[in-house]
């Protein structure tokens, strides 16, 4: 076998292996029940009170996994663990985040089903990728990736994300998708989501297990019990408006 033929064979084998070794794109995120909007709207709040509230809230670290099926173009966003770190000297204090995401399952056609909690109320939401984004000129680096800033055109939603074109998949945590690249950071009125790790998995087992768990839960939810995304976002916007008063 000549050198050229050998080179082509080695290249092909390496390429085939690399492709088969990357069936699932897995991204780990950390969600903190805190945002710039939540603490900046009321200038009358004493700074000492703000500092304590920030310390209290940053002690609630929600860890999520996003599984993106590279072959089928589907994704799952699931809550893995909650790690609570109490404020030193004030361990008796606690907080109950206003908004928590339990999971989001997104199909190839963009339709998704999601479970969230607003205070103590569990809400099942259904919808389609329909957030309109305005991509700005701002750029910064996150975990070595060049990222671009985008905000929701609907200013009442107060959605801000940073995404990278270097990982060209139109997905991200929860409903933050439909952009020309992977979303690595996102913020709304109640919370901030940051990427902590990016990896690939050859085995589908973690993806399949999470998908099965979510689908088994959704089977018990009647269609009439789902809230349309447009209705849910309107309710959430109204809630934010009340907090801002």
Topology:
Blueprint: H1 3-20, E1 24-32, H2 36-40, H3 47-57, E2 60-69, E3 74-84, E4 99-106, E5 111-118, E6 121-128, E7 133-142, E8 145-152, E9 160-164, E10 182-187, E11 192-201, H4 205-218, E12 226-228, H5 229-244
Parallel strand pairs: 6-12
Antiparallel strand pairs: 1-2, 1-11, 2-3, 3-4, 4-5, 5-6, 7-8, 8-9, 9-10, 10-11
Explained architecture:
Mean pLDDT is 86; it is low at 6-19. This protein has 245 residues and is an alpha+beta fold. It is globular, with a radius of gyration of 20 Å. It has five helices and twelve strands. The chain has helices at 3-20, 36-40, 47-57, 205-218, 229-244, and strands at 24-32, 60-69, 74-84, 99-106, 111-118, 121-128, 133-142, 145-152, 160-164, 182-187, 192-201, 226-228. It has a single domain (24-244), classed as outer membrane lipoprotein receptor (LolB), chain A, CATH 2.50.20.
Brief descriptors of the model:
alpha+beta, outer membrane lipoprotein receptor (LolB), chain A
N-to-C SSE series? HEHHEEEEEEEEEEHEH
> What gyration radius follows from the Cα positions, in whole Å?
20 Å
Indicate the percent of residues in helices: 25-40%
Structural class of the helices, strands and pairings?
Answer: alpha+beta
Find the count of extended strands (DSSP E, 2+ residues): 12
CA-based shape: globular
**Total of helices:** 5
**So, CATH architecture?**
Clam
Percent range for β-strand residues: 35-45%
Unreliable stretches covering 5 or more consecutive residues? 6-19
Q: Provide the domain count.
A: 1
Distance between the termini: 77 Å
CATH fold naming: outer membrane lipoprotein receptor (LolB), chain A
Largest sheet: 12 strands, mixed
Please list the strands of the largest sheet in the order they lie side by side. Answer: 7-8-9-10-11-1-2-3-4-5-6-12
* Average of per-residue pLDDT values: 86
Text of the CATH class: Mainly Beta
């Amino acid at each position: 076998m000549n050198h050229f033929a050998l080179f082509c064979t080695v290249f092909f084998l390496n390429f085939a292996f690399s492709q088969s070794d990357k069936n699932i794109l897995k991204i780990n995120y950390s969600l903190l029940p805190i945002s710039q909007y939540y603490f900046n709207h009321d200038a009358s709040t004493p700074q000492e009170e703000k500092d304590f509230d920030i310390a209290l809230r940053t002690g609630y670290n929600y860890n999520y996994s996003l599984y993106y099926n590279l072959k089928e173009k589907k994704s799952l966003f699931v809550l893995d663990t909650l790690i609570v770190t109490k404020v030193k000297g004030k361990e008796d204090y606690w907080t109950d985040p206003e908004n928590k995401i339990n999971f989001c399952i997104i199909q190839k056609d963009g339709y998704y089903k999601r479970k969230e909690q607003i205070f103590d109320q569990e809400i099942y939401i259904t919808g389609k990728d329909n957030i309109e984004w305005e991509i700005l000129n701002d750029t910064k680096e996150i975990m070595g990736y060049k990222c671009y800033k985008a905000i929701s055109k609907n200013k009442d939603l107060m959605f801000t994300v940073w995404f990278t074109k270097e990982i060209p998949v139109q997905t991200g945590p929860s409903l933050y998708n439909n952009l020309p690249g992977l979303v690595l950071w996102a913020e709304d009125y109640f919370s901030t989501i940051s990427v902590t790790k990016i990896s690939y998995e050859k085995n589908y087992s973690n993806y399949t297990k999470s998908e099965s768990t979510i689908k088994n839960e959704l089977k018990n939810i009647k269609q009439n019990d789902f809230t349309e995304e447009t209705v849910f976002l309107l309710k959430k916007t109204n809630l934010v408006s009340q907090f801002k008063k």
